Structure formats: structure tokens, C-alpha cells
Amino acid sequence: MEETMKDYEDLLEASYSLMGDGVHDTDTLLAWRKMEELKESQENITVTVSDIVKGGVIAEYEGLRAFIPISKLSLDRLEDCRQFLGKELEVRVFEANMDEDKLILSAKEILKEKREISRKKKISDVQIGQIFHGTVVTIKDYGAFIDLGDGISGLVHISQISNQRIKHPGVVLTEGQEVDVKVIDIKDGKISLSIKALLADDSKEPEEEEVVIPEAESIGTSLGDLLKGLKFDE
């Protein structure tokens, strides 16, 4: 669900206050106008974290005090913001309210986009026929998602799990299980995998050595050689 200013009212109350009687000078008005434009354009800006407060961090931009909620600092769930003190962050304006002197910034959307660009680049390097040793991370009715490492994953459809027909992937696989998989298709940034393809490869019987049948003439010669030296009663 999309976050709004309402979600942060309690946290913001402790971090912001109206500047004097709410009357702004020209520079401040221009700064707020710029914040509104940045919110509209979603342009990236860089700020430095200057303080840690309840539920997030504080940074300044164009002379304005901005709040970055802990949920907007990282793609991971954080319990502590102190690691960000003094650090530069690339952020976007999430909310700008000049009347209440409340400015919220976010790094999360930028981090999501960078992660997706990185994921697509890694997928572009994957080749059909390539074999991975991965880990089953999620099992669904239609198949299992396999973590291939380096931030990429793929789907083994239920029809590609076993040589036998199975009713559910959980019959054969469990989450956390390590498996070897073969890339059988890449489409729209999604990797299709197969376990069955490797099972089929392993199940091939070794080729039998070719049996060379001697020509009829050589067979006769060989029989003659065998009869040599044999004595028969008259």
C-alpha cells in the first residue's frame, strides 16, 4: 500500500515545528517552490544525514529541514538508523508541505530502480543451456522459484521438475533444498529452469561398443584355421 503523509504524522510531530509564526522569507519560499517541482519531476538529489531522530533521520536541502523515515532508507528492514549519520544519500522528494514546514525524502525508490537495472544486466549475461547450482526459495502450486545466486532467480515449472507426473512441487522439492537446474528459456527478463532436463541427461545409457561382424570369407578362413591339426579316423 502506498505510504502518505498521514503515516508519518506522529514521527514528524517530534521532528518538525513551524518556523516562527509561519511567515517565510523569499529564499525559503523559493526553496519550497523547488521542493514542489522536485516532487513533481521525481529528480534525484543528494543530501547528507545530519541527525538521528525517532523513526528516521534528518537532512537539510536548500536550507530546509527534511525527514527521511527509516522505512525509506533501505530496501532491507532496519532497526537502527545510526549507520547513516554523516552519510550522503541519493533521495527523491516524497512529500512537501510548506504550510506545515514538513518535508519528507525517500531513498527507497531509487534503490529499487538500481536493483532492477542490476538484475536485468545479470540476466542478460545468462545463456540458455547454462547449468546452475541453486536453492529452492519458494514453492507454489505451479512450480518452484530457485535462487541462482548473485541476486537472480528463476522458475522451475511443475512440468520441469520430475520425469514422473507430480501433483504438487512439494512432493519432490522443499524450501532450502539445493538443486542443479538448467536454463531452458529467457523471456521478458524471466528465467525458465528445468531439473528434468538434467535428469534426462543423466539417465542416458552409455553407448554400446560397435560390434564388427567379420566378412564371410574371413569367417571361413578362421574355421579352417581351427580345423588345422585335427586328425580324423579313416
Largest sheet: 5 strands, antiparallel
| Strand segment count | 10
Q: Please provide the ordered H/E string of secondary-structure elements.
A: HHEEEEEHEEEEEHH
Radius of gyration: 35 Å
Shape: elongated
Q: End-to-end distance, in Å?
A: 110 Å
Round the mean pLDDT to the nearest integer and report it: 83
Order of strands, widest sheet: 3-2-1-4-5
Name the helicity range: 25-40%
Structural class: alpha+beta
Query: How many helical elements?
Result: 5
| Low-pLDDT segments, ≥5 res | 16-21, 202-214, 216-221
Strand content: 25-35%
Secondary-structure blueprint:
Blueprint: H1 9-15, H2 26-41, E1 45-53, E2 56-61, E3 64-69, E4 88-97, E5 102-106, H3 108-124, E6 131-140, E7 143-149, E8 152-157, E9 178-187, E10 190-194, H4 196-202, H5 216-227
Parallel strand pairs: 8-10
Antiparallel strand pairs: 1-2, 1-4, 2-3, 4-5, 6-7, 6-9, 7-8, 9-10
Offer a concise description of the structure.
The protein is an alpha+beta fold and 234 residues long. 25% of the residues lie in helices and 32% in strands. The model is unreliable at 16-21, 202-214 and 216-221 (pLDDT under 50).
